[in-house]
Amino acid sequence: MEYGNIHALGLDHTFQWGLRFERHLFQDRRTEGEVGEVLDVDDRGTLTRDERYQASAYSAFLQDAMRFGDWTITPGLRMERYTQNKTRVFAAEDGPEPKEEDNTSILLPGISFLYSGFTDTQLFASVQRGYTPAPARGSDFPLVPETGINSQIGCAPAS
Is 136 left (phi over 0), alpha (psi -120 to 50) or beta? Predict the structure, then answer.
């Protein structure tokens, strides 16, 4: 969402904000057959593991595109809330286990710059903290998200 054309402190502001929800479900149902046994739709073998993973991410962001002259500077902040859980229903070697849960909250700042003073070209640069929640998969718990610093610099045709 966006609310623009605000004039304050000698700058033109455009406030932008949004929400996002993401959910992953994964079920690890492993089976085994006897040596030489052919497994197919009618014979799936013996169930040796049944684990269920669930991961959900909620995020909200707010940024302010501030314009003065040929420059636009946009500071922003994203808040991410990530929850995940694993339930082992059955495993041949261990049996059932208690449900495991992990909750993470993180603030992700960023800033970008745009120069549009050339006739046919715009220059831009940005740097922000990056975070991508881990998809629900695999047997390691807690699931590991991708984190880092994202940056870019470049030029583009003026619009």
Answer: beta
